[in-house]
Amino acid sequence: DEEGGAAGAHAALRREVEAILDAIPSSVRVFDLTGTLTRLNGAARAEHADARRPTTLAELWASDAPLRAAPGGATPAERDVRVLFDDHPAVRALQGETIRSETYVVRRAREDGEHRVIESYARPVRDAEGRVIGAVLVDRDATEKARLARALEAQVRRTMELNERVLTEA
What is the model's pTM? Predict the structure, then answer.
């Protein structure tokens, strides 16, 4: 039966796509045009494992309380700026924009209770005619990268101070 074959092929393709998404260590979320979460991978599920898992983009934004991270910043600080909902990468992708590597500080589940630094990537999902019908948001945890950058900056400052002292004393 041709219909059964198509349905079986569709089911197989769906399982394949889900396996690919779950193999990605970054969080992947897909939103429809209304901002409703339609698909997420295992990493995204793990970030919001409790009963308050966001089901819309607005809920994700409210839960994360994203801050635009200052360079090298891994924790919320006065220099970090609250991100307005309309500036969220997924909202901008729903408007047709492609976002490549913007860094934010968010509140997401961590064993140590600290905030996370994430690098966000987003792009619109388009139909066959090119109209935006949704958005894909990929968040990569960059907390350790930010911590290492801060440590390196501190070492560079210390080295410069020691060099200055040596030059002064010489």
Answer: 0.75
